[in-house]
Every structure is written in C-alpha cells, then in structure tokens.
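#onboarding

Welcome to the new folks! Below is a worked example of what a typical request in this channel looks like: someone posts a single protein sequence, and someone else replies with the predicted structure as tokens. Don't worry about understanding the tokens yet, we'll cover that in week two.

Example request:
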Amino acid sequence: MRTRTCLLIACLLAAGATTLGVAQRAVNLDDMARMRTVGDPQCSPDGRFVAYTVGTIDAKADKHHSHVWMASYDGS
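Example response:
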C-alpha cells in the first residue's frame, strides 16, 4: 500500500503546476529550455520519503543539470 501511495505522490510531483487560467499558445524552443523534467521517483526503504530527480537545461552553456530532491511521504 505504501508503495502505491509513494507512486501516487511521485506522479503528482511530476504533474507540476496546473495550466488553468493561462492563455494558450504554441510551445517554442525557449519554453522547452525553461521547462524542468521530473523523473525517477524512488521510495525510501522505510517508506517515509520519495526521492526524485529534477532536470534543467542551460541553453547558453548547452548543458543539462539534474538534482535529486526529496519529499516526505505525509506531504509535510
């Protein structure tokens, strides 16, 4: 059950911000460079935390950076 809940939390984190109320337009390359990618959610062995990666792109330096983040299971 905890694994299923951890997966749900990871999916919610991956969903990011909602787009309600935002004017719609086509996505361009500048937008893509500003987007963050969220991936590889993993539950801690005790099930209290979810670790996941957040990737960013530095277009000027032509590099991709990835950092590990953690969120508690109970959302605090």
